[in-house]
Amino acid sequence: MNLSEVTERISRKLEAKGAQPDRQKIESRLRRLVEEFGVNVAEAERTVTGDLAREYKVTGVGGTSTELRPISEIVPGEWVTVEGKIIALTPSLSPSIAQSGIVADSSGAIRFVTWTRANAPAMEYGHWYRIESAVVDEYKGAPNLKIHSGTTISRMEKDIPLLPSITPIAELKPGVGSVRAKVVQDWEVSHERMLQTGLLGDETGTIKFVIWNDDGKEKLDLDAVYNIFYATVDEYNGRLSLTLNTAMYITDEGDIEVGRSETDAQGALVHIAPGSGLIKRCPVEGCNRTLSRQNYCPVHEIQPNFRYDLRLKAVLDDGIRARNVLMQRELVERLAGITLAEAVSIAESNPLGMDEIFYRIRNAVLGRYYTCSGSEFGGRLLASSCTPVAFKPEELAALLNRAGGEPA
Predict the structure, then answer these.
(1) Strands 109-115 and 142-147
(2) pTM flag (> 0.70)
(3) If the chain, 408 residues long, is cut into consecutive pieces of 10 residues, what is the mean pLDDT of each piece?
(4) What is the CATH number of domain 169-252?
(5) Are 131 and 148 in contact (CB under 8 A)?
(6) Taking the domain 71-156, which CATH number applies?
(7) What is the 3-state secondary structure (H, E, C) of the chain?
(8) Is residue 153 within 8 Å of residue 350, measured between CB atoms?
């Protein structure tokens, strides 16, 4: 549909009510909605008509509905009016974004973004607002509320307590979610901006979580149970993860029997990555980062009272797919046939030091076949068990005979 025709139709409707609209302004609004926000033309026409009708104080020309909608029911592609409480504000990563965060009502929560060019009033944390004529689009697979120049924001003088509903981990979807979960793994952070990353679990399964360095944010305790309200649920490569910087988390005195979804993989260990073998870890409580050869922690600097650990970072290849595999001390000891105490003794008396342990472990496992089980995240298998695959001469003979019997 030609936007000039839509502009003319809107103009005639307003002129029939005695208004004198600016056609260039009408077409500019339509173009922004259609081209920048991806709104279909019919919906854009209703929105612009309704906005201008309010501006010129005329009635009977159509436009968008101002009917209040529960946040849990809105979907991408709609123009909506909601009333909610600002329960999180996040730093803006672009000058084109004036404000972003999470708004919630009794039915659910949604992330919002206010464009700088909208010139909308800033909303304050902890207060309720009525947001009229906002557009719902999709960002990273989740509904997202966009506040633009046609959106009306009104602060409400009320404070209704919000009781977020807990969602089982297996039923989480991209967006905003609340869970009751147990910290089942605390991983070494891979970036200096990270405060903590690891694995949360409930009766239905597990999910990766991350907390970025932020004022006032605290780390979760391993094996503790938490009620986590309004975490951001993101999707990457088909897997979900929780970011807790927008969330409030409260310890729970109960316990959870975590349901684990194990992944099995069989193949040969074709590569042993640097950082495997005997390593040093930061002794500061709650840190656990790997130290450099000079005993340097990226957070706590030089740590002379480090502690030793064993780990294995490898690639398991089945001929079709190669998986990155991470094994912790107990599993490394079992596969390589060396204990942590033995590894430390050898490293401290051998001219090669810790490199000697790397070579010994590599020689013990490289090229050998294993069946490994564990949780897979971001392409990496966190192995909880690995069993050597026994050589079966009869299977090899059968394969050779079948290959030799095929026509050239």
Answers:
(1) parallel
(2) no
(3) 81 85 89 80 79 78 67 82 93 87 94 90 94 84 85 88 89 93 85 87 90 87 94 81 93 86 85 93 79 82 91 91 91 94 94 94 94 77 88 68 60
(4) 2.40.50.140
(5) no
(6) 2.40.50.140
(7) CCHHHHHHHHHHHHHCCCCCCCHHHHHHHHHHHHHHCCCCHHHHHHHHHHHHHHHHCCCCCCCCCCCECCHHHCCCCCEEEEEEEEEEEECCCCCCEEEEEEEECCCCEEEEEEEHHHCCCCCCCCCEEEEEEEEEEEECCEEEEEECCCCEEEEECCCCCCCCCCCCHHHCCCEEEEEEEEEEEEECCCCCCEEEEEEEEECCEEEEEEEECCCCCCCCCCCCEEEEEEEEEEEECCEEEEECCCCEEEEECCCCCCCCCCEEEEEEEEEECCCCEEEEECCCCCCCCECCCCCEECCCEECCCCEEEEEEEEEEECCCCEEEEEECHHHHHHHHCCCHHHHHHHHHHCCCCHHHHHHHHHHHHCCCEEEEEEEEECCEEEEEEEEECCCCHHHHHHHHHHHHCCCC
(8) no
CATH node for 263-388: 2.40.50.140
